[in-house]
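Consider the following input, taken from an annotated entry for Aminopeptidase (Pedobacter chinensis).
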Amino acid sequence: MKNFLILFVLLSTSFCYAQDSVYTRKMVNTLSSKEFWGRGYTKDGMKKAADFLAAEYKKLGLIPFSDSYKQDFNFPVNTFPGKMMVQINGKKLIPGKDFIVSNESPGIKQKATLIPIDSLNYQASPFLKVSLKDKLTWSVGTEVGNNTQIQINKKNFTETPKEINVEIENKFIENFKASNVCGLLKGTKYPDSILIITAHYDHLGGMGKDTYFPGANDNAAGIATLLSLAKYYATNPPPFSVGFICFAAEEAGLLGSRYYTQNPLSPLSNIKFLINLDLVGTGEAGMTVVNATVYPKAFSLLNEINDEHKYISKINPRGKAANSDHYFFSEKGVLAFFIYTQGGPTAYHDVFDKPETLPLTEYNDLFKLIVNFNKKIME
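Applying the prediction step yields:
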C-alpha cells in the first residue's frame, strides 16, 4: 500500500507538469495568433490581449491588486495601420519578409530613382532612404522622424536597387492607452510577504493591414509561463502571497514597468523577490539570469537547486542590465532576477517568431526550477 501511494504521488506530480505544458502551449498559440495582431498598436491587438489576460486571471481565481485587474496609462506611439506598398525595380516586395519600414518613419507616397550612397545605402530624396540588410528587425517608435527609411532583406532581393515606388501610411497616436494586467493570490499565512512574477505581454503589433509580428518567444512564452505558475499556485496555495503582473509597452522602452514602479498598486517594500520572464521558449543552450552578480546569494541558491535536480544544462550569470521589466524594480531596491533561455530558433523581432517553430524545450524543467526556488527564497 505504501509503495502504491508513493507511485500515485509521483504520477500525480508528472501529470500536473504535463497538464501545465499543455496549458502553456495553448496560451502561446492563442496569444501569438492573428486575433491578437502582434499584441500591439493596430486592430486593438494590445487591448484584446489585456482583456484576455484579465479574463484568464479571473478564471484561475486571482483577485485584482485594487479595483480592477488593469492599470491604465498612456504614451505616444507611431503606428502603421494602412497601406504598406514598396516596389523596387518594378518588383513588389512582401512586408516583413522582404522589407520593413523604420519605426519612426512618416507616411509617404513617391516614385523615384534611387541614387547609391554606397553598396548598401540608397537615397530617393531627402525624405526617402533605402538600405540593404542581412536581417530585418523591427521595433516600436514613440515619435515620428523627418524621413521614411525602408530596409530591404538583401538575401531576398539580389538586384541593384534603381527605382522605387512606395506608398506607406502612418498614424501617430499621441496618447495611446495601454494597461498593465495585475492579479494576486493571497498567502495562507503571510499575506503581506509577496513574491512577484512578471512578464510583458505586448509585442510589435502589425505593419500595414496584412502583416503582423506573432511574438511567440517574445513574449507569449513568458506570459504563458506566468499564467501556468498562476494556475499552479491557485491549486497549491503557498503561505506567502504571489502577485502576477503582465506589463504593456515593454517594447516601447519598459514603459509599463516604469509606470507601475512610479504608481505601485501595493507597497514595493512588501515584495520579497521578483522574477521576470522574457524570451523563455527555448533552453537547449541553457539560460541566463540578469542581476545574478548583484544578488549572489540568491543566484547561489538557484544554482544549488538546479545542481541537485539537473533541470537546466547551464545557468549563466549576468550583471545589472536595463533590458527588461525587472529593471525599474531593481532601481527601487526590489530584489529581482530576469530569466531568459538560450538556444533553438533565432527569430527575434521579426515575422518568423511563430508558435509552430517555438520548441518550449526546457519549459517543464524551468517551471520546476522556479517553483522550487520560490519556495526556498521565501522561507
